[in-house]
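As a warm-up, study this chain.
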Amino acid sequence: MLLIVAFGGWSLLVGAKIPILVFAVIYAGFAYFIWEWRRGMLPVIAALAVIMAIFALVAGPDWFARDKAGYNDPTLPSALLGIVTLGLIPVQMLLVVVSMWGFNQKWNVEEEIHPDEPDWPADRPKPTEYQQLPPQAPPTAAPAS
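Now compare it with the structure written out below.
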C-alpha cells in the first residue's frame, strides 16, 4: 500500500519521496529478519508502525483536498490515493497488534522434551541407552567413600 501511494503520487511527493522509500526498505528488511525468527525486531516494527500510522493520518485528508480544480493531477486519482493512505492506518494498527502478539510468544525460549514424555515427536527416534550419558557429580562434590 505504501508503494502504491509512492508511485501513484510520485510527481507530487516533493519532500516525501525519500522517507516513503526508506520506510518501504525498512519494512522489507524487517520482514526478512522476522522470516529468520529474530524476535527482537517485533517491538521496533510496532513502533515504526505507529509512526507510519500517524503520517498516514496526517497525509490522508490532503489527498482528498487535491481533488479540486487547479491542482496538478497525480498518476492515480487523488481520491484513490487518499483512500489507500487512510487504509494504511488500520493495517499499521493490525501490524502493531500482531507484532506484539508474536513478541509475547517468546521465540527465544526453548523447552527441553525428554524421550519419556508424551510430547516427544513421533517422527524422531528415541535415543538408546548408549546415547544417553550417565549423570555425573558436580566438580565441587566430595568424593564418595
